[in-house]
């Protein structure tokens, strides 16, 4: 397999690709955070219409997003790749180029892999990061009265996906910028690590399956409910030009923000007493307080007109 | 996902399934060994004809085999599972039961996972073990004059596969014992750890793709050649009853032993001065010295008649 190597990785891989397994020497006093994720042709991407380098780029970024949500610093990844013979040449080279770019950006190093054949491309990635055990933040720490915060603008990736699916000419029509959040997502490593290190967040997770689904998971893990105000949710902006591409079928930005997946932004809760310190967070200008933790077991959403309704999880379910 | 949990695992998982990622606290002074492996429907198994619990059992055992070859003690695994909706019920339960049994036998604990849908079942497993850094043994340490040794009887798994493929009535015909090495392979954790800990082996790897292929890899990594004597290679025994099942088409046991994959036995090299100490190895009675390391870059095999020929790798290649 061609090599993929991160530029900034620490030198703790004792033995990498080529032997039966990788050998890693953990740093004394750190704990390791591990997660795994899959990226499957026909489920998460289409090999025909997606730029091959985006397949490689995104597969690593989305796997690493869980580490950001745990406040960990990404270090290594292992890649298992199943693919048909027709995808082993130029296409695979481009995939690995994209993955290498993501690895460099994230400071990660490939520590192992396995390749086999299959009818459809399937990538499975295990990521490892480390963190100081004192910086632990989980999904389960949200408490009554905490502010519910999100990073970034939600729904951008879902909107990019919509454009990809509905209008194959989107890239030609000068809207390729709008596809970026779907094809080459960014993740909030620095913010996640800062929130954990400074003990500002009481609970945190990444928004991979949509805010309505992921915040519900955070609430369930913490044994609490949440109340959101629609007016405070930073939604994707849909330019008029793009609307024309869809021939007037303008999607609802709030719907995309609530239920659209793959933004890989962070949702986290902040105790009131920590809100002032939050101003020192990296990218503070892109953080919005959208609601608060309350008693109960679900999410209530308050519209612009003051009316309340229950927000049901409407995000990504692979078996739906 | 139903839970899979090993009984003997050490208590260093700080946070397991349910959060974004697993958190592990490495033992001070140990190094970690990581490997990943895939088990794909239609490539490695058939979902229709294989007992579901064997799919779970074997997928974990074969992934863990690389740890045995590194002299590591298995500790954790992460599982990504892609499967069609029709396989999410009873079938999946049985798979996870088989995997749980393997985890208990191997002393491993599930530390994370991800599930998605796909047309075919695909399992990707990352395994983690630890070892003392002083016990490092790789593929690359074989030196001129070292004895080439293997554990167990080779070709049993390939023979089981042949029976599965050619004779669907094999299980009914009282030959199910012959299928065991293919369906429920054993691996040499104890032997691998002993060889590494006692610094008896100079190089080691597991025989997953067939002796001819895997020994060639060991030789290439070590920059040496090897000479084997066919009479010394412990080959699968093919009972007459089984031969009748195949209507006289008796496979060549030596061919199965040399090129048949999935035995998950160990091939390792032992400096002459260590051969006496080898007698203390667990399962010493099942170890055979089959040849020696020599100058060159390939494998020479010496027949019963003293004639020499070059042994070309004939094992498993997923893209062949």
Explain this structure to me?
The structure is a homodimer of 320-residue chains. With 320 residues, chain A is of the alpha+beta class. Chain A has two domains: 13-133, PurM-like, N-terminal domain (60s Ribosomal Protein L30, Chain: A); 147-311, Alpha-Beta Complex (Phosphoribosyl-aminoimidazole Synthetase, Chain A, domain 2). The first copy, chain A, has eight helices and 13 strands. The first copy, chain A, has helices spanning 52-69, 90-106, 156-166, 176-183, 189-197, 211-222, 240-245, 253-259, and strands at 13-15, 22-24, 31-40, 73-83, 109-117, 122-131, 147-151, 203-207, 225-229, 265-270, 287-294, 299-302, 308-311. Chain A has a seven-stranded mixed sheet with strand order 8-10-7-11-9-12-13. In chain A, strand 12 (299-302) and strand 13 (308-311) form a beta hairpin. In chain A, helix 1 runs parallel beside helix 2 (90-106) and helix 1 (52-69) runs parallel beside helix 5 (189-197). The longest helix of chain A has 18 residues, at 52-69. Chain A is globular, with a radius of gyration of 20 Å. Residues 1-17 of chain A have low confidence and may be disordered. Chains A and B meet through strand 2, strand 3, helix 1, strand 4 and strand 5 of A and strand 2, strand 3, helix 1, strand 4 and strand 5 of B.
Can you lay out the helices and strands and say which pair or pack?
Two copies of one chain form a homodimer.
Chain A: E1 13-15, E2 22-24, E3 31-40, H1 52-69, E4 73-83, H2 90-106, E5 109-117, E6 122-131, E7 147-151, H3 156-166, H4 176-183, H5 189-197, E8 203-207, H6 211-222, E9 225-229, H7 240-245, H8 253-259, E10 265-270, E11 287-294, E12 299-302, E13 308-311
Parallel strand pairs in A: 4-5, 9-12
Antiparallel strand pairs in A: 1-2, 3-6, 4-6, 7-10, 7-11, 8-10, 9-11, 12-13
Helix pairs in contact in A: 1-2, 1-5, 3-4
């Amino acid at each position: 397999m061609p090599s993929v190597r991160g530029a900034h990785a620490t030198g703790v891989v004792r033995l990498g690709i080529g032997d039966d397994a990788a050998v890693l020497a953990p740093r004394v006093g750190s704990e390791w955070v591990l997660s795994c994720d899959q990226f499957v042709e026909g489920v998460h991407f289409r090999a025909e219409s997606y730029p091959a380098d985006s397949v490689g780029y995104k597969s690593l970024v989305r796997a690493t997003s869980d580490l950001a949500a745990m406040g960990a610093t990404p270090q290594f990844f292992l890649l298992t790749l199943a693919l048909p013979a027709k995808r082993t040449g130029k296409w695979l080279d481009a995939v690995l180029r994209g993955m290498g770019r993501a690895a460099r950006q994230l400071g990660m190093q490939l520590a192992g892999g396995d390749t086999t054949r299959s009818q459809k491309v399937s990538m499975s990635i295990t990521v490892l990061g480390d963190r100081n055990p004192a910086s632990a933040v989980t999904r389960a720490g949200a408490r009554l009265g905490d502010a519910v915060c999100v990073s970034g603008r939600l729904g951008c990736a879902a909107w990019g996906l919509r454009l990809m699916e509905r209008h194959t000419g989107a890239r030609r029509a000068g809207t390729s910028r709008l596809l970026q959040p779907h094809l080459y997502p960014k993740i909030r490593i620095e913010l996640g690590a800062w929130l954990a290190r400074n003990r500002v967040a009481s609970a945190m997770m990444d928004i991979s399956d949509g805010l309505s689904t992921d915040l519900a998971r955070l609430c369930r893990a913490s044994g609490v409910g949440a109340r959101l105000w629609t007016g405070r949710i930073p939604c994707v902006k849909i330019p008029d030009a793009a609307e024309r591409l869809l021939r007037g079928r303008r999607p609802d930005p709030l719907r995309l923000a609530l239920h659209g997946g793959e933004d890989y932004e962070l949702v986290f809760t902040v105790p009131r007493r920590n809100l002032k310190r939050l101003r020192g967070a990296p990218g503070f200008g892109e953080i919005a307080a959208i609601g608060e933790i309350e008693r109960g077991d679900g999410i209530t959403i308050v519209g612009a007109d003051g009316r309340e309704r229950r927000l049901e999880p409407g995000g990504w379910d692979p078996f739906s």
